[in-house]
UniProtKB/TrEMBL annotation:
<feature type="domain" description="HTH arsR-type">
    <location>
        <begin position="4"/>
        <end position="100"/>
    </location>
</feature>
<dbReference type="InterPro" id="IPR011991">
    <property type="entry name" value="ArsR-like_HTH"/>
</dbReference>
<dbReference type="GO" id="GO:0046686">
    <property type="term" value="P:response to cadmium ion"/>
</dbReference>
<dbReference type="InterPro" id="IPR036390">
    <property type="entry name" value="WH_DNA-bd_sf"/>
</dbReference>
<dbReference type="InterPro" id="IPR001845">
    <property type="entry name" value="HTH_ArsR_DNA-bd_dom"/>
</dbReference>
<dbReference type="GO" id="GO:0010288">
    <property type="term" value="P:response to lead ion"/>
</dbReference>
<dbReference type="InterPro" id="IPR052543">
    <property type="entry name" value="HTH_Metal-responsive_Reg"/>
</dbReference>
<dbReference type="GO" id="GO:0032791">
    <property type="term" value="F:lead ion binding"/>
</dbReference>
<dbReference type="InterPro" id="IPR036388">
    <property type="entry name" value="WH-like_DNA-bd_sf"/>
</dbReference>
<dbReference type="Pfam" id="PF01022">
    <property type="entry name" value="HTH_5"/>
</dbReference>
<protein>
    <submittedName>
        <fullName>ArsR family transcriptional regulator</fullName>
    </submittedName>
</protein>
<dbReference type="GO" id="GO:0003700">
    <property type="term" value="F:DNA-binding transcription factor activity"/>
</dbReference>
<dbReference type="GO" id="GO:0097063">
    <property type="term" value="F:cadmium ion sensor activity"/>
</dbReference>
<dbReference type="GO" id="GO:0003677">
    <property type="term" value="F:DNA binding"/>
</dbReference>
């Protein structure tokens, strides 16, 4: 099996993480400031169990890290440059035909 170049591997992990709207919202929230899971679940309006699954995916993708703070864990982006990358992606102009969807739009999955 061929191994991916490091740059391709990073982009693949980033793409998989961004493939889910909840994970996108999580990354955008963590771009603004580190947060505890209970606060993130409340902000996103999802259960803590569901949030935990998405945080695990983002950790596995290498995009977020959990930082122990006393008996709690605070989550933050693994690298501050990810915030800049999210801003660049968020503001990029893409050529979208309103009548078409992305071929993989129905596939669910994680890293």
């Amino acid at each position: 099996m061929l191994s991916l170049a490091p740059e391709v591997e990073v982009l693949t992990r980033f793409g998989r993480a961004l493939a889910d709207p909840i994970r996108c919202r999580l990354l955008l929230s963590l771009r603004d400031a580190p947060a505890h899971p209970a606060d993130l679940a409340e902000e996103l309006g999802i259960s803590r169990t569901r949030l935990s699954n998405h945080l695990a995916c983002l950790r596995d993708c290498g995009l977020v890290v959990g930082v122990p703070v006393g008996r709690r864990t605070r989550y933050e982006l693994a690298d501050p440059r990810l915030g800049h990358a999210l801003d660049d992606l968020r503001t990029a102009v893409v050529a979208v035909d309103a009548g078409r969807t992305c071929p993989d739009a129905d596939e669910k999955g994680c890293c």
